[in-house]
Description:
Elements: H1 14-27, E1 33-34, H2 46-57, H3 70-84, E2 93-96, H4 100-110, E3 116-121, H5 125-134, E4 137-142, H6 153-158, E5 164-170, H7 182-192, E6 199-203, E7 229-234, E8 247-250, H8 256-266, H9 272-283, H10 287-308, E9 314-315, E10 323-327, H11 335-345, E11 348-349, E12 351-352, E13 363-367, H12 372-389
Parallel strand pairs: 1-11, 3-4, 3-5, 5-6, 6-7
Antiparallel strand pairs: 2-8, 7-8, 9-10, 10-13, 12-13
Helix pairs in contact: 2-9, 3-9, 4-5, 10-12
Bound molecules: pyridoxal-5'-phosphate.
Pyridoxal-5'-phosphate binds near residues 124 and 203.
Amino acid sequence: xxxxxxxxxxxxxxxxxxxxxxxxxxxxxxxxxxxxxxxxxxxxxxxxxxxxxxxxxxxxxxxxxxxxxxxxxxxxxxxxxxxxxxxxxxxxxxxxxxxxxxxxxxxxxxxxxxxxxxxxxxxxxxxxxxxxxxxxxxxxxxxxxxxxxxxxxxxxxxxxxxxxxxxxxxxxxxxxxxxxxxxxxxxxxxxxxxxxxxxxxxxxxxxxxxxxxxxxxxxxxxxxxxxxxxxxxxxxxxxxxxxxxxxxxxxxxxxxxxxxxxxxxxxxxxxxxxxxxxxxxxxxxxxxxxxxxxxxxxxxxxxxxxxxxxxxxxxxxxxxxxxxxxxxxxxxxxxxxxxxxxxxxxxxxxxxxxxxxxxxxxxxxxxxxxxxxxxxxxxxxxxxxxxxxxxx
Length: 392
Ligand code: PLP
């Protein structure tokens, strides 16, 4: 068997491996607390489920247009107007099977040998994986603890050259829980005027998950960027719909024929009933979303306090998403050693910072999309077991 050479360039998302290992340990009777995978532990709100079921009963069983049903694209455009305060055309919206395909397709569209793509590191692992797969060179934008896991715009601008095709940004961020500082974004957008051929992919999948009364700052707010900006968002995190596989991308009009070609070649269209459920999600009373967010907020405060009370660990205050990215350098152990110790010895699933890139060494990601009882139990276990594992 001879596979194409580029297959060896594809990476993976460790969160899915840890999820399988945690499930296997649980099946053997181990008491596992899952702080690994990044998905809400709530069920999808009932009106959304009912709309999906109703769509099936109403006979929506066939293909839809590759860009999605018009009612859903209208609803997304309206939602963008309401939340991001910018008028966009429904024709710029591409409904996708989850948030991920927008990133993979954008990378595929711009990436090839000789091209460079900038991406956050530590960051969502699929960015680097897909950049390598496309043949392009991944150029990391370091996100450092001391800058609140934001970036230095001048540094990002210094990484751009004639080969740069695309810059990927993600705020609020996985795995750090950081939010890009507004001043740095403004500086970056101004600096990008010198580079009119460089496109930007803004991964805003956690746009509704910001805390302390802060407002999400969408890249869409910058008018001068709009004709070269791709926005990725979706239903997975906000509406607890990770398994429905429903997301959207907003594209500049001139790229719509290109992204449509990719969609037709890869998946034809998105599951029809999920699309009807997506309309219900955007149009329903948003009370269930607010309730989930206040639960996440409570858990955020709890995990932040408990992690910082542990010997050898410190944790920046997460500003968005549902992740705490704890600095474990004080334990004298590597990120991977801590991940393995926690899973195998203590039954706590977490993700090593190195799964998110080289700049993740020294950190472990704790997803707090789990109950306060489970978070407390996990922290109790850590408090007891960690001192003996610390290497001075
Ligand atoms: N972007 C980021 C930063 C994520 O963390 C995730 C999922 O964890 C995604 C995109 C993908 O979302 P989806 O499950 O909708 O494909």
